[in-house]
Amino acid sequence: MKDDKGLLIVLSGPAGVGKGTVCNALRNEDTDIEYSVSATTRQPRAGETHGINYFFKTKQEFEEMIENNKLLEWAKYVDNYYGTPLDYVEETIDKGKDIILEIEVQGAKKVKERYPDGVFIFLMPPSLAELRNRIVGRGTENEDLINKRMNVAREEIDMMESYDYVVENDEVEKAVERIKSIVTAEHCKKDRLIEKYKQLVEVE
Amino acid sequence: MKDDKGLLIVLSGPAGVGKGTVCNALRNEDTDIEYSVSATTRQPRAGETHGINYFFKTKQEFEEMIENNKLLEWAKYVDNYYGTPLDYVEETIDKGKDIILEIEVQGAKKVKERYPDGVFIFLMPPSLAELRNRIVGRGTENEDLINKRMNVAREEIDMMESYDYVVENDEVEKAVERIKSIVTAEHCKKDRLIEKYKQLVEVE
């Protein structure tokens, strides 16, 4: 059985880890998950549709959204604003549907502050998988390269701290299966279900 | 990636909920999960094999296991002992393999005391699913029957409290899929993975 509210699922990870690829692959699967549409002030490119690729906004509209606390998170890159409209996310989860946000680490941090009940998934970069293999393995690399990798790994591990799950992106299909399993498992969590049952029993 | 230790998965729920059926169906699937074999002092029945269906023990052997704290839980029914040998469970998870225990609610409680890190799954009885349907639905039943069901539901909700997950057994195949998803998700939990990464980074 499903609990009444949908889940806010946040998929993040370091730049280049393949968030977009995994998210698109998930989108092509037959799931009930909705996808958050970002708002932006940049011009639509050929083939992009308002409400599907982005919500296209004027600078003034976007700044009003910021002002009125209507964005779950936002950032400015190269004179253009990008952000996650709160209304769409809330309407979706209120309807009992799950919604996924594919987002940079900094944005995910802001979402976590605003919405700590979300399911935060960290897509694990190959550097960490390599770290494991290298430790298990041979140790034929020079010290500089090892140190460099260890520093990157340390930063990535620090990022990981505030997430609920870590999904290795070894193969896109496997990563997608893991994310789907996490969503299923989250719907089975006792803490999400028991309050509802208690209410049903109390109500009588 | 998998963490080093396997998971102890405990599948329980009220009598008659279908624990055995679900566990057997899971066993027929192609998973890496091992199954705990109980010890008992009762006589083997035709077709039962030592080490597969049960570990068959004498009364004295069993009482020595109790004495030496070698059982994760045990109970006595009609002059025979039944219990879960600790060694087999620990050897399995130490090898990095998951192991599932299908067990009565009282036994699950004891396992929880001894092994709080286990993954505790409560198989939801139809009475609770019915409760939901009835609330949503029509209300054509008499008050006595409703009260009786509400009392059963209250007891079941109380049992549920100490579990991590609640899996509805609406269809065996669906219940099996949910359990498999829970196992996959548990292996992706940040808390299970991050310590290992931290150690790898510190070790250097």
Automatic annotation (TrEMBL), chains A, B:
Coiled coil: none annotated. It comes from the Bacteria. This is Guanylate kinase. ATP binds at residues 13-20. CDD domains: GMPK (cd00071). Belongs to the guanylate kinase family. It catalyses: GMP + ATP = GDP + ADP. InterPro entries: GK/Ca_channel_bsu, Guanylate_kin-like_dom, Guanylate_kinase, Guanylate_kinase_CS, P-loop_NTPase. GO terms for cellular component: cytosol. Essential for recycling GMP and indirectly, cGMP. Residues 6-184 form the Guanylate kinase-like domain. Its EC number is 2.7.4.8. It is an enzyme of class 2 (transferase). It is found in: Cytoplasm. Keywords: ATP-binding, Cytoplasm, Kinase, Nucleotide-binding, Transferase. GO terms for molecular function: ATP binding; GMP kinase activity.
